[in-house]
Amino acid sequence: MIALSRRTTFKRIAVATAAAIGLGFAALPAQAQTKVKFVLQWKFEGSQAWFFVAQDKGYFKAEGLDVTIDQGEGSAASIPKVASGAYDAGFGDLNAIIDMAAKRPADAPVGVYMLYNTPPFTLIVKKDSPIKTPKDLEGKTIGGPANDGALKLFPALAKIAKVDASKVNVTNMAPNLREQMLMRGQVDATFGYVNTVTFSAKAMGIDAAKDLRFIRYGDYGMDLYSNAVFFSRKFVQENPKAVAGFVKALNRAIKDVLADPDMAVDAVMKREPLLKRDVEKDRLLSALRNDMSHPEVARIGLGDVDDKRLERSIEILVDANQLARTPTPAEVFNRSFLPARDQRPSKLF
User: What span, in angstroms and rounded, lies between the C-alpha atoms of 114 and 310?
Assistant: First the structure.
């Protein structure tokens, strides 16, 4: 009886100890996730679907990230927001990063995943406008949002196309007035991105193919990169694992979008139900086809850049804007966080 009592006592102690240990583990908080404040280049729209898919499907969370996504105010505007510390990361124009890297290298964010690898920068005129080339803009008025990427790059285009920029009047307007002011004749031309203007015009009942003409920067030797995902230098230094996780989650989401665009548009509509679903799906597909399908993708994969091409882009901007120093490609883009080449898309259509 005594032996049985001892065995019973030991068993009870063991059970109680195990229970206490279990409760202790249960009481421990879940591993803290790294917070990432992310700012887009513009209002919620179809061509941002991969960010929302990565969030909704838990891809960011699986990488230990707590990501918040805010709307932006222009492709160039997101860069100073990240440089100032207001945001950890963003989506915006790599050329604005180059400009900041030349002027304030310690503050400039760094690109980690290239999305818009085909130059979308353009001047827009009415179909019947006498303006056929950039040179025809002398004596005319061009309008654009203050933070528009094409506006910021106009000095470079003017130099390459031999336009006397002092004879061109540039005026700013709210983004939602761009197409309206052009069609009313209040400006002779506007700055913009081909995809953005095409679908903004469509929302107003304007057929871009019939009513507008695009004078593309790329046709004048400006084969520049455009919008990339970027992080602040401070965040990259302090949280390299989080940067790699963000890029991995994004790349995973992009592959999902390619496989199921309708699912991707669902994620967009969830955030902005007043958008027109068919328009946003067309916008998404157009971005894939026109902004993200540079021939180099088949060779280096989506997300990466060609160093020689980036170096030429930097030289164009430094020369045209008379920047004090020339950043290296490594200063503005860090490919070390990219998934392996065979894990990134090499064909979007």
Answer: 11
Does position 260 have pLDDT exceeding 50, yes or no?
yes
User: Please, how many CA atoms are within 13 Å of residue 163, restricted to the half-sphere of its CB?
Assistant: 24
Beta bridge mates, 123: 191, 215
Which DSSP state fits 12?
Answer: H
Residue 122, burial from CB neighbour count under 10 angstroms (0-12, 13-18, 19+): buried
How far is residue 314's CA from residue 298's CA, in Å, rounded to a whole number?
23
Q: What is the C-alpha to C-alpha distance for residues 302 and 297, in angstroms, rounded to an integer? A: 5
For 167-180, what is the mean pLDDT?
Answer: 93
Give strand ranges (E) for the chain: 34-39, 65-70, 89-93, 110-114, 121-126, 141-144, 169-172, 189-193, 212-216, 227-231
Q: What span, in angstroms and rounded, lies between the C-alpha atoms of 37 and 24?
A: 33
pLDDT in tens, 45-89: 999 999 999 999 999 999 999 999 999 998 999 999 999 999 999
49 forms beta bridges with none
CA–CA separation, 247 vs 95, rounded Å? 20
7 φ, ψ (degrees, to nearest 5): -60, -40
Q: Which of 206, 145, 153 is nearest to 174 (CA)?
A: 145
Unique residue bearing structure tokens 């799906």? 281
Residues 6 or more apart in contact with residue 31 via CB below 8 angstroms: 64
* Residues listed for the chain: 349
Distance CA 306, CA 201 (A): 33
In angstroms, the Cα distances linking 329 to 66, 74, 94, 297 are 30, 23, 11, 18
Residue by residue, DSSP assigns 19-30 as HHHHHHHHHSPP
Question: Do 38 and 69 meet the contact criterion of CB atoms below 8 Å apart?
Answer: yes
The confidence score (pLDDT) of residue 239 equals 98
